[in-house]
Amino acid sequence: MKQYLTKQQTEELIKLGMPLPDSIGELIEMLPKSINNIDEKNYLNIFFARNYWHIVYLNHHTNYEFRRVSGQELIDALYKMVVKLKEDCIL
Q: Is 61 exposed, middle or buried (0-12, 13-18, 19+ CB in 10 A)?
């Protein structure tokens, strides 16, 4: 299991003005537990299925996926979601 970001991933976080995480736990803590989208709340879900880690913001009432990323390594999927939310001005 990969436990650290690559140099390129670290540089991208710096470029986006994000704090540098020392662990997978710190990346998880960067993600909001829920995101409001047009009067609906989408909750953070992290799970492993079919050999991939999935990071999803899901509306539990409608099963609508507000955001989703996947990766073979947990740290890579977390990194992708942090970047996606930062680029979408959610973080």
A: exposed
Q: Which run of H or E residues covers position 12?
A: helix 7-15
Cross-strand partners of 84? none
**In terms of pTM, does the model score above 0.90?**
yes
Residues 4 and 78 sit within 8 Å (Cβ to Cβ): no
Q: Is the Cβ–Cβ distance between 43 and 55 less than 8 Å?
A: no
- Interval 26-40: pLDDT, tens: 999 999 999 998 778
- Sheet of strand 40-49: strand arrangement: 34-37, 40-49, 52-58, 65-71
Decide if 47 contacts 54 (C-beta within 8 A). Answer: yes
Q: Which segments within the chain are labelled E, that is strand? A: 34-37, 40-49, 52-58, 65-71
Scan for tokens 């989703």, then name that residue: 68
Q: How far apart are CA 49 and CA 20, in angstroms?
A: 28
